[in-house]
Amino acid sequence: MQQTKRYKLNQIEPQDHFLPQALAENAQKIEDALLAHEERVDGQVSALDQRVSVFEAVKFACGTYIGRYKYDNQDPVTVQVGFTPKILFIHKAGADSASALAFQSYNTYGDRLSIVSGGFRVHGQELSAGEYHYIAFA
């Protein structure tokens, strides 16, 4: 009786008599290999779950919004991010670039930018018109 090269499974040849023991050995080898593989995968999934839990603990959101002209007395722009940020940074790139930073407890840009429940608000006299990018951290 021959065996496979890689897994050493019994190969019954035409001249061999039917050997139930050879088939049982093959089945046991396959069972043992599958159990070992399952244990390795379970360990990797568990480690991945732990990393995901750590990642989910630190919430952040990023995106864009369209700013209005400085002297436009329209209602404030409110951007919802799904949580109340503790730190917020907004930036507009380009020739008329502008940036602002706000903290939940302290606003560095006066009354033009404020953190509100669920997001942030940019008031009527905001930075300048155009597309702004933001990143908010919980």
Helix content range: 25-40%
Strand order of the largest sheet: 3-9-5-6
Provide mean pLDDT, rounded.
82
Number of strands: 9
Q: Give the helix/strand class.
A: alpha+beta
Share of residues in strands: 25-35%
Task: Domain count, please report it.
Answer: 2
Number of helices: 1
Q: What Rg do the Cα atoms give?
A: 31 Å
- As residue ranges, the low-confidence spans are none
Order of helices and strands: EEHEEEEEEE
Give the CA-CA distance, first to last residue: 66 Å
Major β-sheet, in short?
4 strands, antiparallel
Shape: rod-shaped
Topology summary:
Layout: E1 2-3, E2 10-11, H1 20-57, E3 60-67, E4 77-80, E5 87-92, E6 98-103, E7 113-116, E8 119-122, E9 130-137
Antiparallel strand pairs: 1-2, 3-9, 4-8, 5-6, 5-9, 7-8
List keywords for this structure.
9 strands; alpha+beta; 3-stranded antiparallel β-sheet; single chain; 1 helix; 138 residues
Q: Can you offer a commentary on this structure?
A:
By secondary structure, the chain is α+β, with helices and mostly antiparallel strands. It has one helix at residues 20-57, and strands at residues 2-3, 10-11, 60-67, 77-80, 87-92, 98-103, 113-116, 119-122, 130-137. The radius of gyration is 31 Å and the shape is rod-shaped. The mean pLDDT is 82. 12% of the residues are buried. It folds into 2 domains: 2-12 and 20-57; 60-137, no CATH class. Strands 3-9-5-6 form a 4-stranded antiparallel β-sheet, with no helix packed on it. A 3-stranded antiparallel β-sheet has the order 4-8-7, with no helix packed on it. Strands 1-2 form a two-stranded antiparallel sheet.
